[in-house]
Amino acid sequence: MNRQEKLLDGINLSSSVIAEIGALCNPLLTKAEADIRYIDYADAETLRRHYSHNALIDPEKIVETDAIWGKQTLLEALNQRVDFIVASHVIEHVPDLIAWLSELYSALTEQGQVRLAIPDRRFTFDFLRRETELSDVLTAYITSPRVPQPHAIFDYYLNATPVDHLAAWRGEVNEDTLQRPRNYEAAMDKAKDIIANGNYHDAHCWVFTPKSFATLLEQLGALGLISFECDCFNDTEPDTIEFFVALRPSKDVAAIVESWQKMAKTVRLDVSVPLSEIDARSSNRPTMEKIIENRNEIALSQERQISDALLAEVAELRQSLQCAQEEITQLRHSRSWTLTRPLRALSTTLRSLKG
Q1: Contact (Cβ atoms closer than 8 angstroms) between residue 28 and residue 63
Q2: Radius of gyration of the CA atoms of the chain, in A
Q3: Which pLDDT score is estimated for 71?
Q4: Confidence at 278, pLDDT banded by 50, 70, 90
Q5: Ordered alpha helix ranges (H), the chain
Q6: For residue 88, which of 205, 147, 4, 213 has the smallest C-alpha distance?
Q7: How far does CA 69 lie from the centroid of its chain?
Q8: CB within 8 A of 83, min separation 6: which ones?
Q9: Distance between CA 324 and CA 314 in Å, rounded?
Q10: pLDDT digits (tens, 9 = 90+) for 231-265
Q11: Are the C-beta atoms of 234 and 209 separated by less than 8 Å?
Q12: pLDDT digits 0-9 by tens, 72-127
């Protein structure tokens, strides 16, 4: 499947109401193809001015905004619930991940879904950055930021660097081959502006791989902070930079956790192995659980070897002790021991007198 098919798989375009976030000049679907609403943080004219000097975006092709999402909640902006919400390379930009997912949930119909295309850190300019952890997301959740925060700005501007994703797939990219950008002054200016004025400066607030994304959502699900199960997952394919996830609304915490655990188990850990050679259901698949199991078995084997060696040494010491005790017993019952008893008594008396 191509990327559009992965994002739209199973959607009935003739009967579904769809919302696309951040379509800009490259919408997944046109108005002629589906009943679709385009969502962004500003109207089209503002977006055209903002991107007028961006070589990657054609301002003239930016679609008209149907719903402005910012001060209002998503449901308020749409003024209706929708069957599907599609977001390509958007989730990594949102300042408050938990609140963002909560608003998506509120704007969906009961049987609705969210379809996400997410950049994979290992093949993008986020290569040198640390993957997002639960503590990062919880910090944003309790502070409720509406714009990217200074720590995200610093991490982004000081560590994001161009990466040849094809070279990354060949295993030719590492910290030694990449040079960190020298954007300290720019990062400091932006961070100060955020604190002083609350202005928006774009950055990847969150950094994911398929494995880390699944693990993070499993943790959020277990804490009752998200209401989405993983309905479908398409791993990052060779020579590409993104993976795809479909989220289904759910209030069943156990089912939510289990679905993200299932995704984590099907993630391909060794990116050098072609997808065609991997069967996610194979017992030979190098899942993290299998790796841990193998390591535990090795550790247990080593512990058993050490234990067996110690037991053998203890048995040998016990044998030596038993032999020594038998020799002492034989000596004490011997004729020489009896004859030398007075001399031993005299020696003991002399030692006590000297003391």
Answers
A1: no
A2: 33
A3: 83
A4: very low
A5: 3-8, 44-50, 74-78, 97-106, 134-143, 150-159, 165-169, 184-197, 210-222, 253-266, 288-332, 335-339, 341-354
A6: 4
A7: 27
A8: 11, 16, 17, 18, 108, 109, 111, 112, 113
A9: 15
A10: 999 999 999 999 999 999 999 999 999 999 999 99
A11: no
A12: 899 999 999 999 999 999 999 999 999 999 999 999 999 999 999 999 999 999 99
Strand partners of residue 141: none
| Mean confidence (pLDDT) of the chain | 85
Which pair of structure tokens corresponds to residue 210? 């398929």
- The type of residue at 282 is S
Q: Name the token pair of 318.
A: 């016990």
Token pair for residue 16? 């579904």
- How is 28-71 classified by DSSP, letter by letter? SS-TTTSEEEEEESS-HHHHHHHTTT-TT--GGGPPPPSEE-SS
End-to-end CA distance of the chain: 97
How high is the pLDDT of residue 183? 87
Strand order in the sheet with 108-119: 67-68, 35-40, 17-21, 82-88, 108-119, 242-249, 228-234
Q: Do residues 267 and 210 touch, judged by C-beta distance below 8 A? A: yes
pTM check: above 0.85: no
Tell me: pLDDT of 295 over 90: no
Task: Encode pLDDT of 205-236 as tens digits.
Answer: 999 999 999 999 999 999 999 999 999 999 99
The packing angle between helices 150-159 and 184-197, to 10°, is 160
Is residue 229 within a helix (H) or strand (E), and if so which, with residue range?
A: strand 228-234
Q: How far is CA 229 from CA 3, 9, 102, 110, 345, in A?
A: 21, 17, 13, 13, 88
Phi then psi for residue 20, to 5 deg, are -115, 130
Distance, in Å, from the CA atom of 122 to the CA atom of 125, rounded to the nearest integer, reads 8
